[in-house]
Amino acid sequence: MKFLPQKFPFLFISLLLVGFSGINCSEPESNDSPNADENLIWSDEFDGDFIDTTKWKFETGDHGWGNNEWQDYQPQGSDNVEVKDGTLRITARKTGPGQRVGDYTSARINSRESYLYGRIEIRAKMPQYKGPGLWPALWMLGENISEIGWPLCGEIDLMEYISSKPDSVLMTIHSEANNHMNGTQLSSGFVSLPNIEEEFNIFGLLWEEERLIFYVNGPENVLLTINRPEEYNQENWPFDKPHYFLMNIAVGGNLGGLEGVDDSIFPATMEVDYVRVYSLD
Fold this sequence. Notes:
- The chain is mainly beta.
- The chain has one domain (14-20, 33-278): Jelly Rolls.
- The chain has 2 helices and 19 strands.
- It has helices at 145-148, 253-256, and strands spanning 13-14, 40-44, 56-58, 71-73, 81-84, 87-94, 104-106, 108-115, 118-125, 134-142, 155-160, 168-174, 186-187, 191-192, 201-207, 211-216, 222-227, 243-251, 268-278.
- The longest helix has 4 residues, at 145-148.
- It is globular, with a radius of gyration of 17 Å.
- The chain starts with 12 loop residues before the first strand and ends with a strand.
């Protein structure tokens, strides 16, 4: 979840769709059972009343996360995370005077398992639009990040939402060769997705050996395709190694705070209906 400049140089990339005004959305009760799909290899349906800590762990801290963010991420047991009525709810809250680092709390959870290739889907609804300052994200990082660091480990952003740009979504990858630090990240740019704040949408990825295909609400609605370079290595294609999931809401920061932070927007909640990983077999 990194800062993205306004212009995007595209390398090894295909943009296949730039709008979703006709996409169907639905509420959590329409959640189909994954058990009918024999290719399902992992999921969390958030059906209970607590987060499953055998699947997720909390990442805490207050050091800006490299993006000049303002929130402090809280541990398990805080009021920033709740599982209720079939959804995971991550809530950003204003807990101080406002307009400075540490005056806000939120949560960031990481999956304990990592995956390589497959069809990945996360069904989620963004916070109700009230003003700028929020930066929710559903994304992945290479599991070797502690050994080789970012961006060499690779980053896959299935969904980033910026509340200063309502009714839109952003999908991006970062690597050592292509990232926001040198202005060469590969991204869809901000794409229209009406009602992202009112309805649940499926943010999907077909992760194949030779390409990444991002879509919304079904593989027929492709947003972005990124092909593996002919000559590839760790620097330009770290996506041949396992990645793990992250879900969070940031406050402010280089991208989320481009138009400031409106203190009247809190509390603000992102709901996640499910996370599913299917094999491609």
